[in-house]
Amino acid sequence: MPMTNPDNPFDLTKLSRIMAEVNEKSQKLVEKFVEKKNRSKEIDQTEAQVVGKSFQELTAKLMSDPTQLFNSQMTYWQEYWGLIQKSASQLLGQPMETEKQDSKPDKRFRDEAWDSNPMFSFIKQSYLLTAKSIRNTIQNIHDLDDKTRQRVEFYTNQYIDAISPSNFLMTNPELLKLTIESRGENLLKGLNNLLDDLDRGPCQLQIKMTDLDAFEVGKNLAMTPGKIIFQNDLMQLIQYAPTTETVFKNPLMIIPPWINKFYILDLTEKNSMVKWMVDQGYTVFMISWANPDETLLKKDFQDYMLEGPITALDAIERVTGQRKVNAIGYCMGGTLLACTAAYLHAKGEGDRITSNTYMASLLDFSNPGDIGVFIDEEHIQALEKQMVEHGYLDGCAMSNSFNMLRANDLVWSYVVNNYLKGTSPVPFDVLFWNSDSTNLPARMHSFYLRNMYLHNRLREPSGISLNNVPIDLSRIANPVYFISTREDHIAIWQSTYKGTKLHTGPVRFVLGASGHVAGIVNPPFKIKYGHWTNEDLPESAEEWLNHAEFHETSWWLDWIKWNKAYAGKKVAARKLTGKKFKKLEDAPGCYVTKRLDRPESGVCYLPNALL
Predict the structure, then answer these.
(1) Reduced 3-state DSSP string for 113-156
(2) What DSSP letter does each residue of 558-604 carry, written as one string?
(3) Which region among 4-18, 147-161, 238-252, 314-328 has the lowest average model confidence (pLDDT)?
(4) Tens digits of per-residue pLDDT, 273-315?
């Protein structure tokens, strides 16, 4: 691989000047980092203690069976010696061997020099071999308890991802070549990018994943026409304008998660689930959650239910005259939908929701996946202490935790591209939404972590009481539709499947391809991700999949076929005018436009108002 360009000679003087500028800016960077790091001191200390304890237990298990560790080390050194011999032969001029691809290519090592240059090939193969050996050693320890194993494997993977040679200038051939050819300007640009990320938002570091200036909610995102028909402290309720002459009698209420914003379901006209539902003849209502600050610190989980979907049902009935609705809940919104339906059944009003649809939603939290690493008494207590200061959890803190679940894709790839290559991220609507974090009120978040994740009380009859009413999911008798996705790392589908056993009414479970977002927001015209169906609901998720039938089309088409039985007859389209209708403002409303990295955005001057 050529490391110099005769037309672009190496300029030591210019490189020295650039490095001096880097050093000067680095001092500012350190000051900013230390200032923000002090805000998360409680969490960091707890994290260190929990991780340290887990690895102490791992070490004790290894020392109790030294033969196992010895065998692992012997296997590693035998394979490593083979790698050294192969690399030595290549340095002596023997042709490079073509590597066997056991799985999909590793995006970190796409540059041809990782394979064509003997030195970098050795660095790459040495890293991959070491990573495999570490993982195998841990997996072969059989008497670790499940929680400790999960923590050890998670943080080991974080370490392995972090030390990849692709993440460092001197061990990445692509970065070396770029740095020499640009005379180090890529590093200065990268440092500027890092300083910008440190300045943006309240957290230590919020990595820029997309061009934030390329999108604006209400301008080129969330453009489906509609009106805000109701507003309170926690939510605005949107009614979307019809596009058909007739609509189904039963309206459709969508409950998005409040950990993110609703417009993932209404990005652009082509991939908008909202627009598609409207075009199918539904009168669609969307809850748009407030991005809370200290004024909402007393809001609890039951407030989200009472002031969210319960209040929305009343508003929808006043506008449409229709008491019954079909309801969709996405992620945490699905969990809230289940609580709402159970609450209504306990109050004798279960008929208000005709059907429930849970999109990538957990109802049984016994196996929450990797996010369970952060769920224990120590972590929750530390988080509660941190939230006391402002009365809420900074949105970017939760966002960064979720990004850690896919560190190579959502952390290290941007570290390399933004900070080492010095490039700017390209526009991408989904990543713009992913970066648009929301705060979480302390009381609500504490209740959710403890009752759902830590103690898994939702699945127990009367395990949770809301508004002094014990709720029981088994009393939900109306038809239920579960859609989960096979590669979901947030609500793993084997766990969402357990929710099918908590209902007594008719249940349909569908599994989509792809992940938590792409598998759900899957417009039919793309024919990109298919889905699996099975008319039976066997005891285990694996058995369900073994007998499932795969379809090339989007799950949206399966859902519309299923839901038409509960949508009611066709009636004249409901116009956004009339005596019963009072609009506050046009969709998407001001609540959704409030961004944490732009405090001046999303200022609402409208008073809370009923219809």
Answers:
(1) HHHHCHHHHHHHHHHHHHHHHHHHHHHCCCCCCHHHHHHHHHHH
(2) HHHHHHGGGS--EEE---S-STT---SEETT-SGGG-BTTBTTTT--
(3) 4-18
(4) 999 999 999 999 999 999 998 999 999 999 999 999 999 999 9
The two three-digit tokens of residue 245, written as one number: 């002459």
Q: State CA 55 to chain mean position distance.
A: 27
- Report the b/e string of 247-278 with b at 16+ CB within 10 A: bbebbbbbbbbbbbbbbbbbbeeebbbbbbbb
Helices 41-64 and 66-91 pack at an angle, to 10 degrees, of: 100
**CA 14, CA 16: separation in Å to the nearest integer?**
5
Task: Give the Cα separation of 537 and 547 in Å (integer).
Answer: 10
| Cβ neighbourhood burial of 593 (10 Å; 0-12, 13-18, 19+) | buried
One-letter amino acid for residue 396 of the chain: C
Q: Which of 151, 154, 128, 149 is nearest to 139 (CA)?
A: 149
Virtual torsion, Cα 164, 127, 369, 262, nearest 10 deg: 30
Do residues 121 and 89 make contact, with C-beta atoms less than 8 angstroms apart?
no
pLDDT at 97: 66
Token readout for 507 is: 């249940």
Q: Which domains are assigned to the chain? A: 12-199 (no CATH), 226-365+443-593 (3.40.50.1820)
Identify whether 251 is preceded by a cis peptide bond (ω within 30 of 0).
no
Segments of 360-405 assigned E as strands? 392-393
Q: What is the tens place of the pLDDT at every residue in 191-224?
A: 888 888 887 766 778 899 999 999 999 999 999 9
Annotate 36-67 with b (16+ C-beta within 10 A) or e (fewer).
eeebbebbeebbeebbeebeebbeebeeeeee
| CB distance 132 to 74 below 8 Å | no
Do the Cβ atoms of 92 and 84 come closer than 8 Å?
no
Residue with tokens 């997996």: 139
> Distance (Å, rounded) from C-alpha 372 to C-alpha 429?
29
CA distance 179 to 443: 49
The token pair that represents 602 in the structure block: 């999303």
For residue 470, give the H/E element and its range: strand 469-471
Phi-psi category of residue 223: left, alpha or beta, with phi > 0 → left and psi -120 to 50 → alpha: alpha
pLDDT, tens digit, 9 for 90 and up, residues 362-381: 999 999 998 999 999 999 99
Is residue 449 within 8 Å of 375, Cβ to Cβ?
Answer: yes
Instruction: Give residue 571's pLDDT.
Output: 97
Is 339 an active-site residue?
no
Per the DSSP assignment, residues forming a β-bridge with 595 are: 598
Query: Structure tokens of 22?
Result: 């880097």
Q: Beta strand 480-485 with 507-512: parallel, antiparallel or unpaired?
A: parallel
